[in-house]
Fold:
Amino acid sequence: MLAIALAFAASELVTLGWDLPGSHGWENDGVAPRDIFGGLAHNLTPGAAHRYPLLHYLLLAVPSLPVLLVAVLAGPLTGPAIQARVLAVPTMTAISLIAKLTATAMATLALLALARLVRRTFGVREARCAALFAATNLTFAFYGRVSNLDVPYLMWTLLALDAVLDVLEGADASATTRFGLFAAAAVATKDQAYASFLLVAPGYLVLVPFVRERRFSRDDLRRLARSAALSALAYGVLSGALLNPRGFLRRLDELRGPASQAWRAYSKDLSGLAANVHDACAAASHAWWPLPIFVLSLAGVAVALGRKPGASVLEGRAPRALPLVAGASSFVFFTLAVGRAEHRFLLPFGCFLSAYAGVAAATVISLAGRAGSERVGRGLVAAAVTWSALASFAVHLTQLGDARREVTAFLARQRPGSRVETYGLLVYQPHFDVSGSSPYRVTRVGPEPPRGRNPLVGAVELQAPIADVATRRPDVLVLSEGFANAYWARGADPARPLSEIVAARQRDQTTAEFVRAAVADRLPGYHRALLARPRLPAWAVALGLEPVPIQATTGLSLWVLVRNES
Structure:
C-alpha cells in the first residue's frame, strides 16, 4: 500500500512547476499564493468574512512564515515596499510550492486512509486495488497537486470515516470523539464537507448501533453529547467561527446565497434535478475513469452489498456500505443542492467510489483464480489501471503544454514600447514579463474599481469599458478563454438555464460583442496574430488523448490580437 502511495505522490510532482515561477498562480479557486493572506486576515478580523474557513490557511501559514519574514525584512519597512517584495515572483513562487506540496502530502494520506477503510472491511487485495483506482482517478489526482481545498477536506473526511469503523467495533471509547474532531477539521477546511456527514453521522453513530444492540443507553447518549460538544468547540476554533462570529455568519449568508446560487447551472424543479443527475452520470466517464472502469466501480457496489457478511463486525454490509453512504450523502446534499456537475463537484463521490472499483477488481482476480487463470485476472486489472492512469496523465500533459506559455514567448518578441492589454482574473493570465528589460507594458482593463482586484504585478490597473479599445489603441490584446467563456451564446434549455453570473455578463451586450468579434478575428483595427491552444506531445495525440479542461484552470486557449499598421 505504501509503495502505491509513494508512487502516486511522485507522479503528482511531474507538474509541480506547471504555473511557476510567477507572482500569481493558474489554479482557479486555489488558495495559493495570494489567497493565504486574505484567508487569514478576513477570518480573524471581527465582522469580516472569507469564502473559506480558517484551518487550512493556518496549516499553510506555518511553513510559509520563514519565506514571508525574509520578504518583509529584505528592504525598507514601508507598506508599498513590503507589499512589492511579498508579491514578487520569488516569494509567491515559494508559497505556491509550499501549498502544492502540502496538498500532495494530504492527497497521499487520503489515499492511505481510503485503502485502510477497504482493508478493514474487505481485505488486503481489495485495498490495494482501491488505492490504484483512487490514484488514477482523474479528478482526485488533479486536485491532489494544486492548492484548492477539495482534497485536503477529503483527507479529514476519510480519517473521520475510519474512526466510524472504530465506533462500530466498540473497543475504543474515544472513537466517537475522534470522528467528531476529524469531521470538524474537514468542515473547518471547506464548508461543503458537511454534506458527507449528513447521512453518516446519524446512520452510523445512532441507527446502526441501535439496530445491532437493540438498545441505546444513557451512557451512549452522554458519549454522543460529549463528543458533539467537543466537535462543535473544535470547529468553532479551527474554522474561526468563535474568533469572528459575525464574520462566520456573513460567510454562511454568502454560501447560502451568491456563492452557490449565483453559479447554479440547473433549474430548481424536477426537470433541473433530472438534468443535473444525468449530466453528473455522463461526466463520470471523463471526471473519474474511462467508462468501462466507471461501470466496474458500479459493479463493485453490487458485489460489496451482495457479499455475504464475514465473521467480524466490520465485514457486515453496513460497514462495507460506509464509503457509498458518504459519497451519496455528498452528492445529494452538496452536488445537487448547488446545482453543478463539474469535476470538483463530483470529486467526493468519485473518491469514495474508488473503494468499490477496488472490490470489483479484486473479485475479477478471484474469479479468474477459481477458473485456474489468476494471471489473466491480474492482467485485466493491470490493463484497466493502465488505461485509467493514461487518461489521468492527460491532465499532466495538458498542464505541461499550457497555452499561456506560448503567449508569454510571443509577447517577448514584441517591439520595444509595445502596450499590451488584457482582461479578467489573474488565473487566466499568462506570466507577463514585468522586468525593466521587457519590450512591453501591460494594462488590465475592467469595469470594476482597481482597488477591488487582486493586483496583476507590474500592470496598470484601469477601470474602463472593456470594448473601448478604439480610444485606448493598445498594440496587443490578450484574451483568455477563461474570461471569454461567459460571453458565448448558449442554447435555451429550461432545465439548464444560464447561471446568474453568466446571464449578467451576457446582458452586457457591448462587452459580449467585443469578445465575440475578437475571437472571430473581426475586431475593427486588429487582426489575430496568435491562437494559442494547449499542446500535447505527438505520442499522446497518436494514442487518442486530448487536452483536458478543468474548471477554467487547465486546457484554456488564448487569442492574441495585434493592432493593424496605420
About this structure: Strands lie at 418-422, 440-446, 460-463, 476-480, 526-532, 558-563. The two ends are 66 Å apart (CA to CA). The longest strand covers residues 440-446.
